Amino acid sequence: MMYASLKSIASYIPPICMHNTDFEKILDTSDEWITKRTGIKTRHFANASQQTSDLAYEAGKKAIERAGLSPNDIDALIVATLSPDYLTMPSTACVTAHKLGIENKAAFDISAACSGFIYLLSLAKAFIESGTFKHILIIGAEKVSSVLDFSDRSTCVLFGDGAGACVIGSTEDRNASIIDVHTSANGKHQDFICTPREHSAFGAQAKHTPSHLQMKGNETFKLAVKTLVSDVNDILHKNHIAPKDISFFIPHQANLRIINAVSENLSFNESQLVLSVQKYGNTSAASIPMAMNDIYEEKRLKYGDLMLLDAFGGGLTWGSALVHFGAKN
């Protein structure tokens, strides 16, 4: 039987590193306050001249090279982002494909906020196992700084820019496969995390609203912990896998308090938990592949290692995945 497999991992970290102390100069905040509430110490921002597609290009190029492929071998490119180059079109995937030299192949974006990478895995798994495509490049890429209000200390200190990319191909080895992916959404709480349009209504009733990212932090925290614990328990139970069988638990890197609460509820130990939030902040759809790339480059991630991924984001969306690492080291 042919299975979908994660064949490579790569990331791109943009050049501007901003420490918590840098925010002390522009906001009524402190390194101690930010660290205590979020666990974040630094985050990286793109240059003004860089677009989301530029970040995606850097990560995608490296992922293709690490898979031992060329751009001509890629049959489809899918990008998950909440900060696209253009408002509605063309897609960031189309722009990125052009920059990578991927021509006349499928390319499109998805919008699932911080859950974007889990959604990408679900799509790629289906495309590969159905035989539709042979090699798919998936990229979570974000220039979140482009939608932040840097006078709002409740949001701007939380986020960073970056990109993470994977090539998904096929394998006959189940121990190198993407075992299962769960994705879910509920628009009831759409206002918990959102970026409103400039005008929220039409005609005479139209009113001007800011287009920056807005978030109800306390409400999001409570629902995220409850939802993620339930979803992870479901995927483990469905696949008859115990927490002790997981090599690495790689959650969406949003907030250290959320990560610790979920990890403790699920009984993962310190050696299983992967953390990068302290370095990069919340990079939305890019956070999971960026964290995965960290342990790959540290030579901790090996062929066949079983990773449990989970994420929760605007929509509201959430999801989890059980993924063996399928790249030969």
Automatic annotation (TrEMBL):
<feature type="domain" description="Beta-ketoacyl-[acyl-carrier-protein] synthase III C-terminal">
    <location>
        <begin position="236"/>
        <end position="324"/>
    </location>
</feature>
<comment type="pathway">
    <text>Lipid metabolism; fatty acid biosynthesis.</text>
</comment>
<keyword id="KW-0012">Acyltransferase</keyword>
<keyword id="KW-0443">Lipid metabolism</keyword>
<feature type="active site">
    <location>
        <position position="114"/>
    </location>
</feature>
<dbReference type="InterPro" id="IPR016039">
    <property type="entry name" value="Thiolase-like"/>
</dbReference>
<comment type="function">
    <text>Catalyzes the condensation reaction of fatty acid synthesis by the addition to an acyl acceptor of two carbons from malonyl-ACP. Catalyzes the first condensation reaction which initiates fatty acid synthesis and may therefore play a role in governing the total rate of fatty acid production. Possesses both acetoacetyl-ACP synthase and acetyl transacylase activities. Its substrate specificity determines the biosynthesis of branched-chain and/or straight-chain of fatty acids.</text>
</comment>
<keyword id="KW-0276">Fatty acid metabolism</keyword>
<keyword id="KW-0511">Multifunctional enzyme</keyword>
<dbReference type="InterPro" id="IPR004655">
    <property type="entry name" value="FabH"/>
</dbReference>
<dbReference type="GO" id="GO:0044550">
    <property type="term" value="P:secondary metabolite biosynthetic process"/>
</dbReference>
<dbReference type="GO" id="GO:0004315">
    <property type="term" value="F:3-oxoacyl-[acyl-carrier-protein] synthase activity"/>
</dbReference>
<dbReference type="GO" id="GO:0006633">
    <property type="term" value="P:fatty acid biosynthetic process"/>
</dbReference>
<keyword id="KW-0963">Cytoplasm</keyword>
<dbReference type="Pfam" id="PF08541">
    <property type="entry name" value="ACP_syn_III_C"/>
</dbReference>
<keyword id="KW-0808">Transferase</keyword>
<comment type="similarity">
    <text>Belongs to the thiolase-like superfamily. FabH family.</text>
</comment>
<protein>
    <recommendedName>
        <fullName>Beta-ketoacyl-[acyl-carrier-protein] synthase III</fullName>
        <ecNumber>2.3.1.180</ecNumber>
    </recommendedName>
</protein>
<dbReference type="InterPro" id="IPR013751">
    <property type="entry name" value="ACP_syn_III_N"/>
</dbReference>
<keyword id="KW-0444">Lipid biosynthesis</keyword>
<dbReference type="InterPro" id="IPR013747">
    <property type="entry name" value="ACP_syn_III_C"/>
</dbReference>
<dbReference type="GO" id="GO:0005737">
    <property type="term" value="C:cytoplasm"/>
</dbReference>
<keyword id="KW-0275">Fatty acid biosynthesis</keyword>
<feature type="active site">
    <location>
        <position position="252"/>
    </location>
</feature>
<feature type="active site">
    <location>
        <position position="282"/>
    </location>
</feature>
<dbReference type="GO" id="GO:0033818">
    <property type="term" value="F:beta-ketoacyl-acyl-carrier-protein synthase III activity"/>
</dbReference>
<feature type="domain" description="Beta-ketoacyl-[acyl-carrier-protein] synthase III N-terminal">
    <location>
        <begin position="108"/>
        <end position="187"/>
    </location>
</feature>
<dbReference type="Pfam" id="PF08545">
    <property type="entry name" value="ACP_syn_III"/>
</dbReference>
<feature type="region of interest" description="ACP-binding">
    <location>
        <begin position="253"/>
        <end position="257"/>
    </location>
</feature>
<comment type="subunit">
    <text>Homodimer.</text>
</comment>
